[in-house]
Amino acid sequence: MIVCWRTVRVPRSERDAFIAGIDDNAALRQEHGIIFEYVLHTSMRRNPAKALQPDITVPVDDEELVVITAWPDHDTFDAWINTPDRDRLTASGVHAAVDFRPTTRLDVMGGYPLKTEPCTNSTGDTR
Measuring CA to CA, how many Å separate 91 from each of 21, 61, 99? Predict the structure, then answer.
């Protein structure tokens, strides 16, 4: 399995549409082999005092999100990148408004899923 990590800068005015587009097109991505996709935002909650602390001298860009996806293997991800289905999804106005940074591929070396649960954001909305 591989995990792909990508930072994206999404204007606040486009955030809901960006996330909705990911949710709306999940079935198509799943047909092409995606295992999961999560959109992450830096939490304002800090670690307990006895844990390592992040560098708070670096300001958090509220419009910067992280998108992580998992794929069974590199070939499946490459096939997704090269499919016309992906090209159609990325030809949207929302995609044009977003600043996509390069994707970093990470080979999964170990670990395990605990269980499958719906994703709930900090406002309590279930995705």
Answer: 12, 26, 14
CATH number at residue 8: 3.30.70.100
pLDDT digit string, tens, across residues 88-114: 888 888 888 899 999 999 999 998 876
Please give the tally of structural domains in the chain.
1
Antiparallel, parallel or unpaired: β 2-9 and 104-107 = antiparallel
pTM confidence score? 0.83
> Among all chains, which residue has been given the structure tokens 């999964």?
108
Supply 41's token pair: 């935002």
Q: Determine the Cα–Cα distance for residues 92 and 109; give it in Å rounded to an integer.
A: 35
DSSP structural state of residue 91: T
